[in-house]
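Data availability (excerpt). The following record was deposited with the supplementary files.
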Amino acid sequence: PLGSAQLSPTFYNTSCPNALSIIRTAVRAAVARDRRMGASLLRLHFHDCFGCDASLLLDDTSTFTGEKTANPNNNSLRGFEVIDAVKSKLESACKQVVSCADIVAVAARDSVVALGGPTWTVELGRRDSTTASLSSANTDIPGPSADLRTLISSFSGKGLSASDLAALSGAHTIGQARCFLFRARIFNDTNIDPSFASSLRPNCSTSGGDNELSPLDSTTPTVFDNDYYANLVRERGLLHSDQQLFMNGGGSVEFQVSSYATNSAKFFSDFASAMVKMGRISPLTGSSGEIRINCRKIN
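Predicted structure:
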């Protein structure tokens, strides 16, 4: 489902020439205030882009159910206020020109750069959805207990390969996860470094600490680098789904993880390419959708 023909990196060059610098300045400031926000903004793009249409940003109303309460999103997505602030600056600069979907896509790139990661050229021209699908959000995004087959299948359903999965999973080199998402791993999984598991158990016991946070990359949690992969090789992946990429079975995904663990430039290059590809997943373009004035509600 790739509708990239209508997207273009120069989409706002004449209609809103300062759009990209307005977004970049706001994202840099937000990440400087709270380095975890970089991961949160990147995650918004991932969770929206299994559709790239800003449907994720819509608030529930008495007559409308959005996607914020879907299992992968509920109480775990952050950064909506940063998107709101960017939107309000853009509305002052060029009224109803820049879509919320494009803001989310650009903010993800700028967040990665702010945390030391690679850059890429974001293709622009998405429009904002006037609908949302709670059921799709619940079924499309694989959960933290997913096995490799499920992960590959979820990505494949969006036109992304196993190789894209391996590269995009590197987004977990930043950010945090709540205890209840990895409790089963640290108590039940056998492919986990014992000292790593025991270091996590005091804050995440069998009976408590559901919302206690731990970094997805315990080595450099707020730097976008290749340590996530080095951790997987050492069986120090935080989520069950993370460790599934490196299971000592010698498959192609595992080979890719090994190469990223020792070659940061290769990871950066592949991650950037896969992000461009992900940004092309069924965007609304042309006359479909709208340009929202407020990212949280349909015009």
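Summary of structural features: Residues 184 and 240 are 8 Å apart (CA to CA).
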